[in-house]
Amino acid sequence: MIAGKIGANVSQQPPFRVGDERLIKLTSNAGVKVSGLLTKQGRPNGVLRVAVVGGGCSGLQYKMDLQDSPQNRDILVESSGVRVVVDPKSALYVTGSELDYSDALQEGGFKVKNPNAATSCSCGESFSA
Description:
By secondary structure, this protein is an alpha/beta fold. 16% of the residues lie in helices and 36% in strands. It is built from two helices and ten strands; from the N terminus they run E-E-H-E-E-E-E-H-E-E-E-E. A hairpin with a 5-residue loop joins strand 9 (119-120) and strand 10.
């Protein structure tokens, strides 16, 4: 009889990778806002997911969501005190981007400054690459 468990010596790798702010960076204003939203939702250790999906006036648009933790294959970046996750496909479009937040009455909210966007629409919420 063989004692022990099969695979007991195999080290567990996290299902996500760790990146840096060259992928995506949050301004301090965006970091404060996202931290506040995560705390308000009862997820102080949660993450901000930034994704690029088809749609919008210019063909692609950003989708942001608050989640509990990174998912399989995500790239995790810490910026301005916030953990941000990006899936590998979206990473192709957001590399080098900066996420800012303004509480201005007009044109306030989250804005993405993306050096990969070839064109963007007047609403500022979609782009093409």
